[in-house]
Amino acid sequence: MALTLSKRIIKRKRQTATIFCVYPSYETPRTLAQANTSRVMNQNQIHILEPNGVRRSRPIPPQGLTIGRGSENDIVLAYEAVSRAHAQITFEQGYYYVIDFNSANGTFIDNLRLPPHTPTIWWPKQSLRIGGATITLELVQTQRRQPADLDQMETRIGWVPGEAQQPSVQKPQQLALILTVVGVICLCLCAGLAVASYYFMGL
C-alpha cells in the first residue's frame, strides 16, 4: 500500500516537472540529484598517515570533516603541533576544499601554507599536511577533472565556495570598442553630409 501511494505521488509531481525517487514508507523522498550526490560522495575517502606510522582511512560525509586535537573533531590528531580546532574539509560545487582555522602551526597543501579562514581547493594528487600527519584524498568517482599540471591550474585561494564568480571584463571592453568605432563612422557621415549640403547650397 505504501508503494502504491508513492507511485501516485510521483505521477502528480511529474505534472509539475519534478521527479522523486521511490523509497519505502520509513524514508523521506529525495530528488534524484540529491540521491546521486550522496551516493558518489560516500564513496570518496581520505587516507591518514600519522607521525607514529599509524595508517587509517575514513569516508568523507556530505557535511565534510573537522580535524584537530580536541575530541569533538571528526578526525582527532592528538599531537602537540595540532591545534584543538585545526582545519576543516568541505565539499562545494564538485570540489573539495580545506579551511585552516588560524592554527598555530598552519595547514599545508604540498608546500603551500593556507591562509586562515580561506577555502582552498584540494586535488587528489596533493598532500594535506597537519602537524606532521599526511592526509591524501581518494575519489572513487571523480566529480571534476583535475588539471594535468597543478602548477598551471587556476588559483582559487580566497574564493568562497558557493559564491558567484566575477563576470568577465572582456565583453564590456569589446562593446566599448564597437561603440567607439560606430561613433567615429557616424561623425564622418555627418561631416560628409554637412560638406555636401554646403557645396550644393553654394551652387
List keywords for this structure.
disordered N terminus, 3 helices, alpha+beta, single chain, five-stranded mixed β-sheet, 203 residues, Tumour Suppressor Smad4
Short characterization:
This protein is an alpha+beta fold.
Question: Can you walk me through this structure?
Answer:
The chain has helices spanning 2-14, 32-43, 170-202, and strands at 45-49, 55-59, 65-68, 75-76, 87-92, 95-100, 107-109, 112-113, 120-121, 128-130, 133-138. The protein is α+β, with helices and mostly antiparallel strands and 203 residues long. The strands form two sheets. It has a six-stranded antiparallel β-sheet with strand order 2-1-11-10-7-8. The longest helix has 33 residues, at 170-202. The radius of gyration is 29 Å and the shape is rod-shaped. Mean pLDDT is 74; it is low at 1-41, 150-155 and 164-169.
Computed structural class? alpha+beta
* CATH topology-level fold name of the domain at 44-152: Tumour Suppressor Smad4
Radius of gyration: 29 Å
CATH architecture label of the domain at 44-152: Sandwich
Percent helix = 25-40%
Shape: rod-shaped
The biggest beta sheet reads: 6 strands, antiparallel
Instruction: Pick out the low-confidence regions.
Output: 1-41, 150-155, 164-169
N- to C-terminal separation?
A: 98 Å
How many E strands?
11
N-to-C SSE string, H for helix and E for strand: HHEEEEEEEEEEEH
The order of strands across the largest sheet is: 2-1-11-10-7-8
Summarize the topology:
Elements (H helix, E strand, L loop, with lengths): L1 H13 L17 H12 L1 E5 L5 E5 L5 E4 L6 E2 L10 E6 L2 E6 L6 E3 L2 E2 L6 E2 L6 E3 L2 E6 L31 H33 L1
